Amino acid sequence: MMTHAQRLSVLLATGAAILLAGCTTIAPLSSPASPSAPAEESPAVSTPEPTPSTSFPNVTPTETPTETPTTAPKTPKPVKSPTGPTLPNLVITRFTTSDDPVVVGAKTDGKVTIKNTGTADAGAFSLGLSWNNDNGLGSGADSPVAVDGLAAGDSVQVTVDLSLTDAGSFTFTAEADSSHAVAESSEDDNTKTLATTAVSLANLYFAVPVSVVFEDGGYDVKFKVGNSGTADASGVYFDVFAFDSAGIQTDLGKEPVFDPIVAGTTAGFVQGVDFPASGDYKLYVLLDPDNTIDESNENDNEGGADVTVP
Questions:
Q1: What domains are defined for the chain?
Q2: What are 192-227's pLDDT values in tens digits?
Q3: pLDDT tens per residue, range 257-275
Q4: Nearest-angstrom CA–CA distance, 269 and 236
Q5: pTM, rounded to two decimals
C-alpha cells in the first residue's frame, strides 16, 4: 500500500513525462491490485493519425478577354465638283464616203456624223466643208449645210458633196458650227478630216439608141457612142449578137474602134450583119465587152433593138 506521499510523487513524475513527450492524453493511474481480484488492464490510448490532405491540380485561371470598343467608319463627305456654265459641245465623230476613189466629174457624197457631248441643247448651226489638194494645186470650200439644232447627247448625220473636177489627192475638212453661232464648252474638237483620191475615167454610153435597117439587100445596125467621162477612151471594141425566139444566140460580129473616143464627144457607127434565117430576133450591141476600159459607170454599155427578118 503506497502512502499518499508516494502517490503524489508518482503522479508528478508521470505528468512531467507526458509534458516532455508532447502527449495530449493522460492515462489514469490504476490503483494497486487487491489480493483478492486481478488487476484491471487500462485501456490502450490510440494516437489519432493525421488526416491526409486532398491535393488539387494547379488550375491557371482563364483571363476574361477585354472587349475592344469598335468605332463605326466615318462616311466620307462627298467631294463637290466644280460647277460651271451648262453648255453644248459639238463633236464630229465620223466622216466617210462610199466612193473611193472619187471619180472626177461624178456625183460623190460624204456622210458626216455630229454629236452633242455637252450638257445643254445646241441651237441652229452650220456644217462647213473645205478641201485642199495635197500637191498644193488648189483648195476650196463648199456652201455650209444648215443644221436645225442638236439636243444634248443626240447625234445627227449630214450628207455633204465631195464631187471634184480634177484628179489628184485631196483632204476634206468638215467643221461643226463653222460660223461660231453656238457657245460651246470646247471649241477645239469641231473638225474632222477625210483623205481621198480623185481619178479621171471615161464613160461610154449610147448617145443614139441602136436601130436596125434593111438597105441595099442587107441589114445594117446603126448607133452612136458617146463618152461622158473625163478621160479619153482608147482601144474600144463593140460586140453585136442576137437571140432568136427559141433563145439561141448568134454572134453577128465583134469590131474594134480604131480612133479614141475623146471625153465629151460622140462617134457614130454602122455595122452590117447577116441573120441566119427568117424569124424574130432580139439584137444587142455591147460596148467594151471585155471591160478593158475603166469607166465611171459600167451599167450603160448595152443597147438593143427588136428585128423581124422575113
A1: 90-199 (2.60.40.10), 204-309 (2.60.40.10)
A2: 999 999 999 999 999 999 999 999 889 999 999 999
A3: 989 999 999 999 999 999 9
A4: 12
A5: 0.60
